[in-house]
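Sat 14:20. Reprocessing the chain from the morning session after the first attempt stalled halfway. Input below, unchanged.
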Amino acid sequence: MLKDAYIRYANFFRYVSLRKGKGTNPLPLAYWEDLRKSLLKKITKEDVLLPAQRMLKSKGSVVNIGSLKPLIRDKEIGTWTLDRYTIEYLWQRLSELRPAVLAECGCGISSLLIATYLAEKQPQGFCISFEQDIREKERMDKELKQAGLERYVEIIHTPLDRRGYYMFDEKKIAGTLRTRKLDCILVDGPGGPAQCRESTLPALKSFASTVCHWFLDDALRDGEMQILRNWEQVPGMTVSGIIPVGKGLGAGTIAGNSN
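Finished this time. Tokens:
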């Protein structure tokens, strides 16, 4: 147990050092696979690349985004939600990419982040969100309305099948998006068995623009790393690697239809 804790804390500080030395560019899967093999020689644990969760847990008040901070000030983040480092990275990246039409798999802190980004940077923009838990959908709908941000995010209750995959309603998605195409997709759901998120991007590919950026949270878990390896084989999908923030943020692009 002590060795496991040591490795988790060492991972956290290793990733801090990587960000300082190499910036927040994605590092290729080969780098992470080699590191994983090295760590497994010391300890045989699942998800050996994950950092110490204690180092990611905080209050939303520590997030350095002025317009978002009041909305998440009292929330605990970094345990089951995005952590401060991932939130701040996504805000920076969205501000650089300027997507106008987004999708998210799994609502929550990310919904508030995206809605705040749209209100500030793309006021004519929109996000379609997929959530497996009807109670979580209703709770987040209420929070968005209280913040005056409900126009920017439409959350669709999307149950799971027996494999743990979203049962996307393509007609509902098409009706919601109309002629709009997705510029960016954030995958932080569904919650379920390992690799339950694998179907998300392939299922949404037909709704993507010709160059749609995507991000996958929890990318340093074993299941998500296998997803990334599998996505490398999907035509039209590029896996850039994993950014060393939080529990790992996979990144790449997916090319939808040109029409």
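The longest helix spans residues 2-22.
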